[in-house]
Amino acid sequence: MRNLISAFPILLVQLFFLGNCIFVLEDKGCLSNSSCSEKTGNGLILALLALSDQTISDSSNTQFNARPPRVSYANQTYVLPFLAEVSIPAITEGTPFTNCTIFPSPYPSIKLNPENCDLSGYAYFWHPVIEHTVVASNQFGTATTTIQFGTFFLSQSPTISYTSNSIILTRNAAITPIHPSVLSGQSPITCSTNTSLPAGLTISASTCVISGTPTTAQASTTYVITAANAFGSATFSMNIQVLATGVAPSISYAGSPFVYTQGNAIASLSPTLTGNSPTSCNANPNLPTGLSINNTTCVISGTPTSTQSSTLHTITASNAFGSNTTQISIQVSAATIAPTISYTGSTFTFTAGTAITTISANLTGSSLTSCSASPPLPAGLSLNNGNCAISGTPTNTQSATNYTIMASNGSGSANAVIDIRINPQTVAPTLSFSPSSFSFTRNVAITAITPTLTGSSPTSCSSSPGLPAGLSINPSTCAITGTPTANQTSMNYSITAANGAGSDTKVIQITVGSVPTLSYTGSPFSFTQNTAISSLVATVTETPFSACTSSPTLPAGLSINTSCTISGTPTSTSSSNTYTITATNSFGTGSTDIQMTVNASTAPPTLSYPGSPFTLPVNANPLPAWEVQLTGTPLISCLSTPSLPTGFSLNNTTCQIMGTSSTTFGPTNFTIRATNAHGFVERVISITVVP
User: Fold this and answer.
1) Which of 48, 240, 496, 545 could make an S-S bridge to 505, C-beta 3.0–4.6 Å?
2) What CATH number is given for 517-599 in this structure?
3) How many angstroms separate the CA atoms of 679 and 675, rounded?
4) CA 618/CA 601 separation, integer angstroms
């Protein structure tokens, strides 16, 4: 056989059945189960496996788990001393799990092992006992159990509670031990009852567990169970009835349909049970993920972790005497988010008798279940319960008052504080301006134009058309302020003051202009006495000017016109001096400084007679003066070569020719010499005297 198996490189397996076990003969590995034995010989391995809950492995130690998961804990309730180390191993089958989760989450310092559902860590937080749902998963299914744990301070007096306060038992039928669902406090704890339990039943003096077999039937009787320690005591009242014969349980729940919210722990659903207590409770179809049903009390609890539309679940309560069912409807809605609330603006001013513009709230989170104000809003105003919007018409005046607006839903609440003032009923405003015509200078801040207002304060002030650039109107006082930035010819503006009761309009006139600007290119200027200057033309803005002046007065012979152009011939010398030239228009003045010097002449004279040659009749009388152009005065002398004809004369300081001729003569040239201290100049002219 060994040689036959070795001849095949691929695993060869021979199976044969014996009872409820499989015997496997193979050369490469084994299939094993703790309920079967392994045998080896001649290189062969013999393994015995149970037909149910089989675990298959080969020689590489790879496990193939064919079991659905099972999970439970040794106790249903754990009460942990504050700061104690926590180690709660799970009782499992079908491990390793693909996932293990717990709802609601335990303390941050207590961790759940996702592979085997063990709980470990430290009880760093105090918390009352809470029931948690543990869900274990592998590739073959899921399993659910519940566990309760909480913490207590070492000096804590005891607390005690049982899952049910009404128990129905059957005579001569052993009961499932009744454990406290909560038992906490400083050890040691002593448990007792106010009167003896039904015959056959006992209570553990240290654990408060009730157990035994009742031997005598009795009507429902109330027993007070007391847990005591050195720090105090606690009690729990329980009704126990013992039936002579067994009765199948009947079951009902009050309140169906039930609507829950994903992620929120539900209030436990405790049924009304009659007959003998159930030994099992189940739901079909399964309850929503995260919810579980207690196997003996049929109490439904937990935290739903996924949504579910409204679904009918059949709940079956069973015991040895039969079973009964009831139906409940469960819906799980998406998780709600706690709201946030704010308002745009926190101070609001209203007027008595005038409807307000609705104040809408800025909301986030899930839909609200309520909206409230503390203190209540002013008379006439209301708060929308679904969106916290404030609306209405206030009827009474009041000073500024703070109101806390609270928005709430199933996941929490949030507050916003607003301030509300209510003024008396308004009267239409009236306004007037005195004067009503204004002239402003560009780029110069104006003196505020403040109107006279009567009536209630305006809620708005406006101008039509808009005011000149740079000017603005106060929306509540109608005062006009600012600095105009552009010129504007005279224009009418309609100023309107308005409030909720009406409006009033007045017309004003505004003109905006600029002061002059001027400059001269070339300063400082140097001129020569008795020499005509080239006109100094100013570069100017904001004309026309009403005047142009110089301070001090310009040198003799020079003048300035209304365009600020300087011209003329200086007739006397002047040392260097600064002259402030000022231009004036209707909006103000502008000025600039220039420097001028007038020097004495240092050049020979210049001389010309633009009319030469001259022709005139004999005996012409009087002889008009012929034009002469002369510079470089004063002259020392002015002479003619040859001498001018009889009847003519030559002015010695101006070279002006005057006179008459009594005889005729043909064209004759005369050389005129003008002499000053720096030299002379000669010019030839021609004179003809005709009959």
Assistant:
1) 496
2) 2.60.40.10
3) 6
4) 40
Predicted confidence at residue 555, as pLDDT, reads 95
Q: 606-690: CATH homologous superfamily?
A: Immunoglobulins (2.60.40.10)
Core vs surface per residue 89-107: b (16+ CB within 10 A) or e: ebebebbebeebbbbeebb
Tell me which residue has tokens 């240290």.
206
Specify the residue for token string 């799970």. Answer: 90
Range list of H helices, 7-155: none
State which residues of the chain have pLDDT below 50: 1-65
- What is the CATH T-level fold of the domain 70-152, as seen in this structure? Immunoglobulin-like (2.60.40)
The pLDDT value recorded for residue 76 is 81
Measured CA to CA, the distance from residue 305 to residue 132 in angstroms comes to 13
The answer to whether domain 340-423 has CATH 2.60.40.10 is yes
3-state secondary structure of 3: helix
**Residue 647 pLDDT:** 86
Single-letter amino acid code for the residue at 14? Q
Positions of E strands within 375-436: 381-383, 390-392, 398-409, 412-423, 430-432
Please give the pLDDT value at position 621. 66
Calculate Rg over the CA atoms of the chain: 60
- Helix and strand tally (H, E) in the chain? 1, 63
Pairing of strands 141-152, 77-81: parallel
**Is the distance from CB of 383 to CB of 403 less than 8 angstroms?**
no
How far, in Å, CA of 428 to CA of 439, rounded? 30
CA distance 512 to 545: 16
What does the DSSP assignment read for 595-617? EEEEEPP-S--EEE-TTPSEEEE
Side by side, the strands of the sheet bearing 679-690 are 614-617, 679-690, 665-676, 637-641
Say if residues 93 and 53 touch (Cβ distance below 8 Å): yes
Report the b/e string of 410-442 with b at 16+ CB within 10 A.
ebebbebebebbbbeebebbebebeeeebebbb
